[in-house]
């Protein structure tokens, strides 16, 4: 399974998952670039779907379907763990509510397309208001192998690393992460996120000490998650 990343808008990221001669578009706002790539590589765009229903992610969906004849898959109808066949390869859908209640993540071939649930260096805003669901979703994604590559819905890396440095100025892993950052191909591994992303470090002694210094409860994982989500 191959993945291709496309930029559109100010910082949005669209994706094609490709298996042999078939492709699936996810959050396909870069309509012209996606169609050009499909034609240039002799692919058939078979399916079009989204990670969640925010307009900046669904903006290209209808046009891609109309121009390609692809099947539209409504992300809101997927069951957790459901698989999508893409030319004999499986794409697994994980329901990851939190940013929105309809958010999903697509997992295939060692990559995750996470939308606005998990970014490179941070997590999305909890627009759903359900912090417990968001915590459960992040925990679900953290269970994947450390080598899993994270492809998110936006490039927020610069601001995310600045905030991580603000919270944990002595974390030298942030410098290594920044050195690997490529603004033409935005990706990190789950191991990178566990070392740098404050919102995945709720069991790290450095983050626990920070929470305690702010007078926030640290008795269990969920309390620590809530505390980190409240930090400024």
UniProtKB/TrEMBL annotation:
<dbReference type="GO" id="GO:0004416">
    <property type="term" value="F:hydroxyacylglutathione hydrolase activity"/>
</dbReference>
<keyword id="KW-0479">Metal-binding</keyword>
<dbReference type="InterPro" id="IPR036866">
    <property type="entry name" value="RibonucZ/Hydroxyglut_hydro"/>
</dbReference>
<keyword id="KW-0862">Zinc</keyword>
<dbReference type="Pfam" id="PF16123">
    <property type="entry name" value="HAGH_C"/>
</dbReference>
<dbReference type="InterPro" id="IPR032282">
    <property type="entry name" value="HAGH_C"/>
</dbReference>
<keyword id="KW-0378">Hydrolase</keyword>
<dbReference type="InterPro" id="IPR050110">
    <property type="entry name" value="Glyoxalase_II_hydrolase"/>
</dbReference>
<dbReference type="InterPro" id="IPR001279">
    <property type="entry name" value="Metallo-B-lactamas"/>
</dbReference>
<feature type="domain" description="Metallo-beta-lactamase">
    <location>
        <begin position="11"/>
        <end position="154"/>
    </location>
</feature>
<dbReference type="GO" id="GO:0046872">
    <property type="term" value="F:metal ion binding"/>
</dbReference>
<dbReference type="Pfam" id="PF00753">
    <property type="entry name" value="Lactamase_B"/>
</dbReference>
<comment type="pathway">
    <text>Secondary metabolite metabolism; methylglyoxal degradation; (R)-lactate from methylglyoxal: step 2/2.</text>
</comment>
<protein>
    <recommendedName>
        <fullName>hydroxyacylglutathione hydrolase</fullName>
        <ecNumber>3.1.2.6</ecNumber>
    </recommendedName>
</protein>
């Amino acid at each position: 399974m191959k993945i291709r990343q496309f930029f559109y808008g100010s910082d949005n990221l669209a994706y094609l998952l490709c298996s042999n001669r078939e492709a699936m578009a996810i959050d396909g706002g870069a309509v012209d670039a996606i169609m050009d790539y499909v034609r240039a590589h002799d692919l058939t765009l078979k399916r079009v779907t989204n990670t969640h229903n925010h307009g900046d992610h669904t903006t290209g969906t209808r046009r891609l379907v109309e121009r390609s004849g692809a099947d539209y898959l409504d992300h809101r109808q997927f069951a957790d763990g459901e698989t999508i066949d893409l030319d004999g390869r499986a794409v697994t859908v994980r329901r990851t509510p939190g940013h929105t209640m309809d958010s999903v993540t697509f997992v295939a071939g060692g990559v995750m397309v996470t939308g606005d649930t998990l970014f490179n260096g941070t997590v999305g805003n909890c627009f759903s208001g359900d912090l417990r669901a968001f915590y459960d979703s992040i925990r679900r994604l953290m269970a994947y192998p450390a080598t899993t590559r994270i492809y998110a819905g936006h490039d927020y890396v610069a601001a995310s690393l600045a905030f991580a440095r603000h919270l944990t100025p002595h974390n030298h892993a942030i410098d290594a992460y920044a050195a690997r950052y490529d603004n033409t191909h935005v990706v990190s591994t789950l191991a990178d996120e566990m070392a740098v992303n404050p919102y995945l470090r709720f069991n790290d002694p450095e983050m626990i000490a920070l929470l305690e210094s702010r007078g926030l409860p640290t008795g269990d994982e969920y309390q620590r998650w809530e505390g980190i989500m409240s930090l400024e």
